[in-house]
Amino acid sequence: MIPLLNLDAVNAYYGAAHVLHDVTLSVCPGERVALVGRNGVGKTTVVNSILNLASLRGGTLKFNGVVQHGLRTYGAARAGISVVPQGRRIIPNLTIEENLLLGGAVKRPGPWNLASIYELFPILQERRNTPGTALSGGQQQMLAIGRALMANPQLLVLDEPSEGLAPVIVDQLADIFNRLANAGTALLLIEQNLSLITRVARRFYVMAKGSIIEEGALEGLDIAQLHKHIVV
To answer: Where does the ABC transporter domain lie (predicted)?
Structure first.
């Protein structure tokens, strides 16, 4: 199977700072992949490399088998990649519905529109005229996910989606992510919450100091192997 997303020996920089070192990873169509590691090891830089917010100076990045250059967020969404960023980045001067409509601006065909997002997240419909930043943390994460889905992505990249959320909300997110994956959306889950990782992902990569140091299937894995790469 041809990978949907493929990073091959990618080296990425911020200015003169060399952050990613020969990173190779892939996500196949419909696959659920976790990228784990401690804070500061380069996980978000993988996202920024996809969005051309970090400078690639070696290796290749392909999506749907095509080498990508300079996608940026809008171009990535048009190509079929949506990102739920760390910190959610809800636009403060827009209502919930306006935030969602912004996510759909690329007008990719698919099942996700306001009606289907409101069916998935009824609280967003109830408060659709409320400023997005007036929501609770969990509701803002739902809005960020809904906004990303409005672009009808083939690949959904989730950067630390459980950060700062109560366990009951994380449980809800796990159910939602599994529902999306079962419907055929590929997931790249960048996360440190082992409960969320094991409930959603089927395969994993471990990062340390800007490099991939371990990878494999989650089925049958001793979770202590992953835990040691997350705890400080």
So the answer is: 5-232
